[in-house]
Amino acid sequence: MALKLYNTLTRSKDVFVPIDDTNVRMYVCGPTVYDDAHIGNARPVIMFDLLFRLLRHTYGEGAVTYARNITDLDDKINKRAYERGITIKQLTEGTAARFHAAIDALGNLRPTVEPRATDHIEEMKALCEKLVAAGHAYVAEDHVLFSVPSMPSYGGLSKRPLDDMIAGARVDVAPYKRSEMDFVLWKPSVEAHEPGWPSPCGIAQPGRPGWHIECSAMSWKHLGEVFDIHGGGIDLVFPHHENEVAQTTCAFGTHVMANVWMHNGFLQVEGEKMSKSLGNFVTIQELLDGWQGKAWPGEVLRLTMMKTHYRQPIDWTVRAMEESWKTLQGWYRATETVEAGAPPAGLIEALSDDLNTPKAIAELHGLDKRGDLAGLKGALALMGFDAARAGELSAASDQEADMKDTDRIDDLIAARLAARKAKDFAESDRIRDELAAMGIALKDGKDPATGEPMTTWEVAR
Q1: Which of 35, 48, 241, 402 reaches 20 to 30 Å from 265, CA-CA?
Q2: 128 assigned ligand-binding residue
Q3: Is 250 annotated as a binding residue?
Q4: b or e along 233-259 (b: 16 or more beta carbons within 10 Å of the residue's beta carbon)?
Q5: Of the CATH numbers 1.20.1250.20, 3.40.50.620, 2.40.128.110, 3.20.20.80, which one belongs to the domain with range 4-264?
Q6: pTM here?
Q7: What is the arithmetic mean of pLDDT over 288-295?
């Protein structure tokens, strides 16, 4: 079956035809390393790792270049390092190391190349010079700004009305801008804690690049002026990816930057938007170390993420992780002593349909049910699951079983909710105290979908 991918640029699912099938090129926006990656950040990492694996299976391991950048130059980084009293490099190196450890535990391959923004300053300056020379950018008060009106097709990726783009871009009002939509390519570094380099375009004041120009420079350096696939989260479509398109196509006079643009959907936790104020913000490492009473193995998180198609919103729940754990244990135990076969055609067909992971998982269940254990093991391997870790997963399960009796906790919480609904507050308080004695902290709230009272829990720290 031909590989079909949904293209944000065309708003359609099209057959993927690489520019050169001996050199398939993919760029994905990676982390800004000022803070530890949360579970939402894991979604594009896992999804594009799966696509990387599928492309290598289809075209050959040596025929695919996957670039995922590290943004180690950003105003949030500067601010965080200054607040902590450490150097920018100390902050970014430590955060990047923790990012790699966390996503490695999820079963992801390392990309072919992992460019860092700070290693590509000269490419960023060269793009600024090209854009100014072509009339698509201008210098004002030590800034280099992209002139949005100079590009009639601006907005072609996000397809948003001008008013929406102005609002979505959180436009900075600045007297030196010719148009309110113009965005920064280069800016002066004036504060002591701001990093700076010799500026392009005849600017005497040292400066630093804007965020958008960084990805244009890194993709150009490693993949060329036009490449096959560009990916990232749906929140990056505008303004980041829209501005990347503008910079790259106007600098090189091309019609497109990438032929296919792919974006994964949002993630929420237990029915609510993830946020620190709601107390449901969770990092990848916290899940691996212990969350809601359990330390969750990386492959459990991987399978849980794949249960939902990458373009759909995903609701991250404890129940879904528990189901994934049980499923993986069954598959690993069944395949532990068999040799892996080739990934079955049914699996390849599912993944070739715009990475239809729910359908692929159904195929895995079918292989297990039919007793095709060699095919199951081969399919698991292609999707990034290592059946050789069956012993580790079982050991983690045994350890988890010794921690907290989640069924008992859920029953007590349900009884407490019933008592509160009946206004039996004495019983409600008694159950709360019983849970506290078990080392369980409760958080009361409302179900955002129904408005009904609900309670979540975690192991008391």
Answers
A1: 35
A2: no
A3: no
A4: bbebbbbbbbbbbbbbbbbbeeebbbb
A5: 3.40.50.620
A6: 0.85
A7: 89
